[in-house]
Amino acid sequence: MMLKQAHYAYLQTWVSLARQRLWSKTALLALCQQPLAEILPQLANQGLDDIIAQLRHNQLQLLPAGNMDALFLAVLLKEGRSMVRALTGEEREWVIYWLQRFDLQNIKAILRGKSLQHTREQISDKLIPVPYFSHLPLQALLNAEDINETLRQLEHSTFATIARHSRESFTQQPDVFTIETAINHQYYVGLVKRVQKLPTEERARLHRLLGQLLDPINLIWLLRYRLDYGLSASHSYFLLVGGGWQLTAEALTRLVQIESFAQLPELLPPKMRAVLANSPSIQVCELRLEQELMTQANQFLRQTPFGVGHVLAYLLLRERQLKHIHALLKGKLLHLPDEQIRFAIGGF
Amino acid sequence: MLFYPQTMRHVTLFTTLADAPNVAILLAKSGCFDPHSATQPNPQLPDGQGENYRQHFQQAYADWQKIKQYMNLDVQTAPVHIEAVTESQLQTARQQLAGLWQQCLAHKNQQHGLAQQLQDIRHLFDLLDNFQRLDINLAVLRQDLQFLDLRLGLMPSLYVKRLSAALQIEGFLLSVYFQREEQAHVVVAGLKQSADNIHSLLESCSFQRISVPDEFHAHPKTVQQKLHIQQEILLKQQDELEQQRQKLQQNHQETLRKLGQLLTLAKPYALLSQTMQCKGQLTQISGWIPACQQAALQQHATQSKLPVVMLMRAPTVNEYRHTPSQVLPPRWMQPFLALIRNYGVTAYREFDPSWLFSLSYILLFGVMFGDVGHGLCLLAVAGAVKRKHPNFFSFFVAIGLSSVTFGFVYGSVFAFEHWLPALWLSPISQPLLMLELALAGGAGFIVLLNLISIYNYLMNKQWQAALFSATGLVGLSLYLILWAVLWLESLAGGWLLLPLGLLLLYHGWHSDRPWAERLLVSVIETYDVIIALFSHTLSFLRVAAFALNHSALAIALFALADLTDGATHALVLVLGNVFIVVLEGAIVAIQVLRLEYYEGFSRYFHGDGRLFQPLRLSPDPLTHSIGFANHP
Questions:
Q1: Does residue B193 sit at the A interface (CB-CB below 8 Å)?
Q2: CB-based contact (8 Å) between A177 and chain B?
């Protein structure tokens, strides 16, 4: 027990120091007004030395999009690795599972490639390296003949459960949408299940943040299933993940009855209705919910006693910040108007 | 006689067509005549005979075998009165057997039908198992109801809670009535008008609909009772049918015995007729007999007073490949002979490897697996298999004794190397010496095999190959000179040029390609000979390697056992020894076989001979297949 506390002491210090890297939204939006040459020195304490060096080395020329994504992901996962080292037991497993979700993007890219009968090389070009945490048998997946074989190969990896369920769904409805839905769904079901294995105290602390994380996911999925893909209310409900904070089972049962986007405000719980007031589209809803999640994560970092939830909160905030910096740099490199860049980083 | 197959004589036998069946019986009784089509057909006797006889025999024999198998008959078919079977007798027998087989077939079909019905009932019982927990009339589930959509299904238990909540949105209810492992048996019910909304939902959670069979038209318990009654009726019918079969067997046992004897007597002529050449009444029969049986066969023919003229001669060189070979190794060598047959059949005028193979196998096994205790275990295995698998008995005795002998030589008992003083040394104490001896032994073995190969060439009058081939005199010289140059360093390398040059010329001479290609092929083949000589010699290092491996495994075993104490220590030692005997024993047996096949047989044994298969008055299944005469 002492050992665990000692680990936590280190982790707490690490997170406290790392939090200083997190900028407020105002500070980030202020950067949009500045030219790229002035922005780069301000990124010095962001752990982005490699990216800055590459940008300078290439004399601010555009890096290929995939390379840029990979560089930012590597920064996040490197920090994730530092935190994971300080964790043990189920907490460690849980954080690793969270960081492994980047593998899902690669799985989906491979499955999409297989369905479009792309060559091994074409698919390979679309993959993003996931350093430290990837457990994908990439070569076996790339060499697989079709989607079925790919999923069978995946059954030999840490994503066995996800693969098995996805394969069952694919057998029933052979299309990529079904698999991707099943993969997303199973991943979050797995995440919730793993929380159940955490010590009671941790579980209680994490319950709210996890619920707040699942709420936007469920709501966006629900709106898309019902309004974009035209799934029935019951089917849409079945594809959601239980364990939300505001969107409880009861709230979701009500929400799945939605027939048009205009009905949304009246079906939402009061707090969420306020956040999404006057949202014109699902995309704006998504951005606002994400912003709200970040606010909650920030509050969690400041107000809750230290635990594994802090790692999640930090990772959520850090991931979003890196995404915003990525968007900022990309926008500047592409000479996009400042307004467009501001929108991309949530300054609507 | 010890090292090559029995000397054979080609027999040409002239008789009349009418007496041919009796001659066939005479030859079968003698048990030493292997019929074979004449290597040079006699143009004066162009006709074949006995086509109808063969067809009757084939059909009758096939029916008899099927009846025997169906009735599980064990009848004595050795003939009491030995006399030839006429075509009309055989035809009658064929008709009798065909009629009998039709009766058996009718029974068999009925039995199959009943078995199928019983299987269907068992399947229904399994299906009913799914509905047992439902306390309703199953007929309801089969009806197309006006307002209610009712379906039964199987789905992963994992999804039940979520699906139930999702179905409630559409006004449907889900109830689990049975749960087995990770699968739940559920009933889903709701208004028919909303049924379309739940299709995709049910599909996405792997819901498998269970359809209710026609037989299920009452409460599960009532259905079960009815199925039991049906099952009992069918079982009773099955018993009756079995009694009928037994009665049929009793009624026809004597007939079948007589028919079996008749077929035994008909078989020789059916087989022989394929090889006969005729013109009018004059019939020629050809085949082979062991030279030592010539006088006996002549005597049989004279005593039978049949009109037979018999001409015998030694096979010509061109006939060697058609001449059957008969080897007569001692009884204990039978399992080793089976291993040789696995590779091929000794050709006529080819060195018979039985003795060399058996003795070298036993010796090499002992060298590689020398341990008194483990050898005794193999002897115990021999005792255990003696009754059930008598063929393996002598094999295990031989390798067991060899292992015991070399166990004394190495001083090893159940991996303990300090219980017995070694008569020579423990392999692990002198590994380099062991490797050197293995290499020298392998070289000696290869020289011996080359000498045998030269003998084979000479026996077959292949003079060029005997002198110049890679397994001939030149190949042997090359090998010996290589040893003298590389190992003993007693000769200059220049000596190698002579055999290499001769080999190149020999390979080039035998090729029918253009000159440039011939040169290339010749160089590659000669290079291959040198590589093979090296690799085959080095391959014998495995003999020492396995002897060392045996000691090394023992050391590992004791190291493992020393980590424990008391009963566990003893258990580790016992299990370790079992592991050594089973696994290492099997590996050594395979490795020795590999040495014999690849390094041994590839040098001198072609195995492309034809087995001597004499006609016999035997009730056994056909040793000769009909149509054998076309085989070379």
A1: no
A2: no
